[in-house]
Amino acid sequence: MTPTTMISRRKLLITTAMATPVMVLGVPLLAQEPQRGGTLVQLVEDTPRHFNPAVQSGIATGEPGTQIFASLLRFDEGFEPQPYLAESWEMSQDGLKVTVTLVENATFHDGEPITSEDVAFSIETVKKYHPFTAMFAPVDSVDTPDARTAVINLGRPHPAIYLAMSSQLLSIIPKHIYGDGQDIPSHPRNTENVVGSGPFRLTEFNRGQNYILERYENFFIKERPYLDRIVTRIIEDSSARAIAMENGEAQLTAFESNPRDIKRMEANPNLEVTSEGYAGIGPLVWLAFNTKKAPLDDKRVRQAIACAVDRDFIVNALLLGTAAPTLNGIHPGSPFYNPDVDPYALDLDRANALLDEAGHAPDANGTRFSLVIDYGSEPTKPMAEYIRPALKKIGIDVSVRSAPDFATWAQRISNYDFDMTWDTVFNWGDPVIGVNRTYQSSNIRPGVIWSNTQQYESQKVDEIIAAANVENDPEKRKQLYFDMQEILNDDLPLYPVYTVPYHTINSTRVGNPPRGIWATCAPLDRVFLKS
Amino acid sequence: MMFTILQKVAYSGLLLLAVIVLNFFLLHAAPGDVADTIAQSMGGADAETMERIRADYGLDLPLWQQLLEYVTGVLHGDLGYSFFFNVPVTELLLERLPATLLLVITAQLLALTVGVLLGVISARRPNGLASHFVTLLALFGYSAPVFWTGIMLLIVFSLMVPIFPVAGMSDATLTGGWWAHAVDVAHHLVLPAITLASIFLALYSRLCRASMLEVLGSDYIRTAKAKGLSEGQVVVKHALKNALSPVVTLAGLQFSAVVSGAVLVETVFSWPGLGTLALQSIIARDTPTILGILFFSSLVVVVVNLITDMVLRLIDPRIRTGVA
After folding, report:
1. What's the pLDDT score for residue B60?
2. Phi/psi class of residue A456: alpha, beta or left (left: φ > 0; alpha: ψ in -120 to 50)?
3. Domains with residue ranges and CATH for chain A
4. Residue A111 CA to chain centroid, in angstroms?
């Protein structure tokens, strides 16, 4: 790969001088008046299983799904809800009723009006089939007093409900299509002749090649979307996507995480590269411990390992500085992130002292004990290899075990056949959706990946989670999660290390590039192409 | 001859059945299943969702029952439903087949023509400069990993000198008639076909060279020359026809290798063929799709071997009379 490196270095030298003024000029350019028309070529890695986000979460369906279907709310960069299909929303004093008023004249792509019936049907469907059951579990029923008003009745207060109404988490799907009695997860209309409620219509899908989205002329926000078409090309290979961005074949790609490709694209003056926009997805990488298996059942051992693993080295050397460090299992961009916990900075003396204290004296060769480390995805392989020399320094003999594919690894980890593993887990916006599952003792579920596979049990944490789940006061709720992170930082069932270096790359021709908290898994109705 | 062919067909049928049963058990021997990978694609799922997925796809049934249902289906021409994409496997395969055939056949023809040509050139003057150059090229093509060759071609011809598109089989933004589309596909085909051909080019050119050298030294060539035939006639009509036989045999045998090479090439160039589908479904543990692809590619290999056999009979009379 030497030629590649040489090219990018040369390019880097030539372009760094030019890059700065372009970026400065870029700010006033961004503020320019949006223009109608044009075709945006976007790149994605995976073919979606289908296009119905109500029954399929994840990025592959989320990127097109949020263009085809509208949600009730959208969220800005600061995690603040903004009107979308819902014009207004209100919670009753006791927090048990949420009343949502729909915008006027919203229609599905087949011209049928979007009514509160569809909202009720969508919530029911998501509650029943969406994998994130915590989102609408407290919903008892949805009343529809008139066509534009939906009243959501809750069995208990549920502060996470607003976030659960955003973007791909609650797509409003047509009852007159999906309510025909067929099984919704395998409904033929999830792929063919999809009738959505969002800014773009799906007009073509060539599995493994591309899908095409066309502007919906009667979208409920006047003048939007600005683009005529989005042609999305499915390119699995990360380097090929980078080349297509560099030579101008495409104008937008998101969820790019290969450090080398990111660096190369950063050096290109025609491209804007940013890691903004992923606080909602909240993708984190951590070193998880099997807390029921000796010697890792002793928190001093886990803390010692944390002190010997150099977070800065991983972020700056292994990831070329493309990722951000995280001290918690909550994304640093989340309002609930507690920045004041013990970072377990690299300190071998502290690590050795902790291991001595735990009674693991080194033998004649200086070895205290042996451990095996697994890793769940190819990008974390270098991190697994790094653990070996890092822990050697404190007398822990580590061997790396690789898995041929995801399913094999998932079976090992979820059936507790492991010591330590690198794991990549997403927050999905609110702790109720994507954080609690990792720590709740009730979520130790054999065979289920991304449950509490650490088998961590803490009555205190369980209590805090239960309290935060129903705490409608934002400040009090935040404090509860801050307390939880303190405890988790001390118990350390897992050692949070970095955020997945997801980046959005767009051509400088793209106006209003997607940022927010969901990156491209949010409506692109404001995106436009500069002439 | 008819009997031999029928016998071969019968063996092939048994072979295909064995392929299904063996692959079925191999796939199920691996830990984990499609419920895990669907959960992965969804960013996690709870126990109930995973149970529902397993029940929906009959993964909770005993293994022998799953196998029986599958084999019965295949015998009725039904390859089942893809777990991951929720469409009939046959539909998925037929969607992808043209792309792979186009790539594989183009690459194979390219490798054969250029390989034979290079082989003949270097055999004419075995110690000449051209011959050494061909040897070097062959060695390089054979030893360079195919994905590396692919990425290098991409960097040179899509990025540095952007004359070829990066990925895919067609430009979705293109408007125009079928001619414009055909040109567009051909344009997209150039780099993947060269990449795939590069591996086999080496093999064919070396084999053709060796076999030509052998033939050129034989008595009947001397006789032909003595009769006063021109150099070109001797080489093409007399020598090459005989020297070609091992090359064709190898090309037939290599067909399965071309198909597996296509997996890598398709991935690098996002060529929407069976190769990318195979890779995706293996990663997704989409058992019916993998079995379908394996069944189908075994079928292709078996058929190609039969055809090779017949072609050899045509170009080499020795096989026609002898026992096959």
Report:
1. 85
2. beta
3. 14-28+36-277+503-529 (3.40.190.10), 283-499 (3.10.105.10)
4. 33
Rg for chain A, CA atoms, rounded: 24
Chain A environment of B48 (Cβ under 8 Å): 133
**More confident of the two residues B283 and A111:** A111
The answer to whether residues A214 and B126 touch, using CB atoms and an 8 Å cutoff, is no
| Chain A interface test: which of B40, B84, B274, B290 (most A C-beta within 10 Å) | B40
Residue pair A80/A280 in contact by the 8 Å Cβ criterion: no
Distance CA A208, CA B96 (A): 9
Residue type, A302: R
* Stretch B37-47: mean pLDDT: 84
pLDDT of residue A157: 96
Cis before residue A343, ω within 30 degrees of 0?
no
Identify residue A279 by its one-letter amino acid code: A
- State pLDDT tens for residues A147-198: 999 999 999 999 999 999 998 899 999 999 999 999 999 899 999 999 999 9
Pairwise CB contact (< 8 Å): B283 & A406: yes
Q: CA Rg, chain B, in Å?
A: 24
- Among A185, A239, A407, the residue with its CB nearest the CB of B285 is A407
- Please give the share of chain B, as a percent, with pLDDT higher than 70: 97
For residues A133 and A350, the model is more confident at: A350
Give the mutation candidate from A213, A227, A449, A502 for the B interface (greatest B CB count, under 10 A): A449
Q: How far is CA A378 from CA A257, A383, A399, A402, B230, in A?
A: 12, 10, 17, 9, 61
A211 in Cβ contact with A202 (< 8 Å): yes
Chain A partners within 8 Å of B277 (Cβ)? 208
Q: Which domains does chain B have, with CATH numbers?
A: 13-78 (no CATH), 95-321 (1.10.3720.10)
Across the interface, whether the CB atoms of B39 and A209 are under 8 A apart is answered no
Query: Across A354-486, where does the E strand assignment appear?
Result: 369-375, 396-401, 420-426
pTM: 0.85
Could you report the per-residue pLDDT of A208-252, keeping only the tens digit for each?
Answer: 889 999 999 999 999 999 999 999 999 988 988 999 999 899 999
Which pLDDT belongs to residue B5?
72
Distance of alpha carbon A494 from alpha carbon A282, whole angstroms: 16
How many residues can be counted in chain B? Answer: 324
Most confident by average pLDDT, A136-150, B64-78, B211-225: A136-150
- What letter would DSSP give residue A292? T
Do A218 and A80 form a contact (C-beta atoms < 8 A)?
A: no
Residue A204's H or E segment, with its range, is strand A200-206
Distance, CA of A268 to CA of A7 (rounded, Å): 12
